[in-house]
Amino acid sequence: MTETSADVTWLTQEAYDRLKAELDHLAGVGRTEIAKKIEAAREEGDLRENGGYHAAKEEQGKQEARIRQLTQLLERATVGERPADDGVVEQGMVVKAEVAGEPMTFLLGSREVSDDSLDVYSEKSPLGAAIVGLKVGDSSEYTAPTGKQVPVKILDAKPYNG
């Protein structure tokens, strides 16, 4: 089942499990490993000119940011089956559309679900918000950051199988 609320991210069970495993690793073993790197670098002496210490601290900051991102994502995620193959555009659908006269194929949803073979647009993006709920053959438009109105026609919408 798919949620379309602005605060909910749809994930497949496989994507949820993968992201949960990444979070568990980063919050457990990952934190221990980075703490050891920082401690080892600290023992090298003067911290003002200690490149290893600063690199480890920067890595720690990135890791903590990823932990926060994953925690928030998983707390708000709706885990479920793929959307129905009914041609209605919603999260978790691969959409083929004509955007400003150009054909595009993309996943509507979270980058965390995609396998990098597709471009991903959030349902919260101007394009995504303009097409959620449309069916094959429907048209809409959205306002680009430049202020220009961009026409969109839905050519196909199938559940993502990645």
Automatic annotation (TrEMBL):
Q: Which InterPro entries match?
A: GreA/GreB_C_sf, TF_GreA/GreB_CS, Tscrpt_elong_fac_GreA/B, Tscrpt_elong_fac_GreA/B_C, Tscrpt_elong_fac_GreA/B_fam, Tscrpt_elong_fac_GreA/B_N, Tscrpt_elong_fac_GreA/B_N_sf
Keywords tagged on the record: DNA-binding, Elongation factor, Protein biosynthesis, Transcription, Transcription regulation
Query: Which residues belong to any copy of the Transcription elongation factor GreA/GreB N-terminal domain?
Result: 10-79
Transcription elongation factor GreA/GreB C-terminal domain: residues covered: 86-158
Q: Where is this region: Disordered?
A: 45-64
Xref: Pfam families? GreA_GreB, GreA_GreB_N
**Molecular function as annotated in GO:** translation elongation factor activity
- What is the role of this chain? Necessary for efficient RNA polymerase transcription elongation past template-encoded arresting sites. The arresting sites in DNA have the property of trapping a certain fraction of elongating RNA polymerases that pass through, resulting in locked ternary complexes. Cleavage of the nascent transcript by cleavage factors such as GreA or GreB allows the resumption of elongation from the new 3'terminus. GreA releases sequences of 2 to 3 nucleotides.
Protein family: Belongs to the GreA/GreB family.
* Protein's recorded name: Transcription elongation factor GreA
Instruction: Supply the gene name.
Output: greA
